[in-house]
Design brief:
This protein is an alpha+beta fold and 269 residues long. It contains nine helices and nine strands.
Length: 269
Amino acid sequence: MAVKQAEGLAAPAPAERSGSVRAVERAVELLFRLASHPEGIGLQRLAAEVGCSKSTVHRLLATLQGLGVVEQDGRLREYRLGQRVRELAGQGDELRRAALPLMRELVESTAETVTLHVIEGDSHVVIEQCESPHEIRRILPLGQAVPLLTGATARAILAFLPSDRTQQTLARTRTTRESGPSMAQLAEVRERGYSLSPGERIAGGTALSAPIFDRSGDLCAALSLSGPRFRLSSARAARFAPLLVGAAARISHALGFRQPRSRSAGAGA
């Protein structure tokens, strides 16, 4: 039986429908490509991967940016998935669920602030925090992005990333005043299994950080402990290090990490 077309709605011509479907296909392909490059990707490389002209990809990205599903790093001019997509995908939820009980245990054992950091582009971002019970304590704003250049968390991440990515990250983030850690310093971090920073990024503060690995064996986050140096001396921080490293290892295990990590796989390998 024939169905009468609704009044006021014109059926799209086959060519129009085909063009619309193709645009949707390209947009979805772009999202999948961006998902495979969580650190970000430039327009030229993205266009090459999807097999479209730069102008077409740029137009689609502009639309996706307007919808909040794609974002661009203003300094590097690279694109990555936007916050709305990350929220929809629940990115970080599994990590938080695995980490929070152990973060609370660390606070009870050390009485210092414990933070969970993930990588976003050339920065690390605080996604969870358990604060010290002391009146004078270190507090980091959730969502704060800090360049992967200085500090305990940056070194804990850089030390366990693939060597080429570490070197590329340092090349993009270093400044005339701060060149970042050397490959030898990062090798020491890998040897110890954690990094220690007495007042390097924040004057009067001490921080230590350990890596967290996912089920594929790749670094996915860092667990950090920090506090004022008058209370958290380097010696005291070193005594807390086994607790921090143990907690990070248990989080990695909860995420599915099983294979032993080769120390030669990180920066400087």
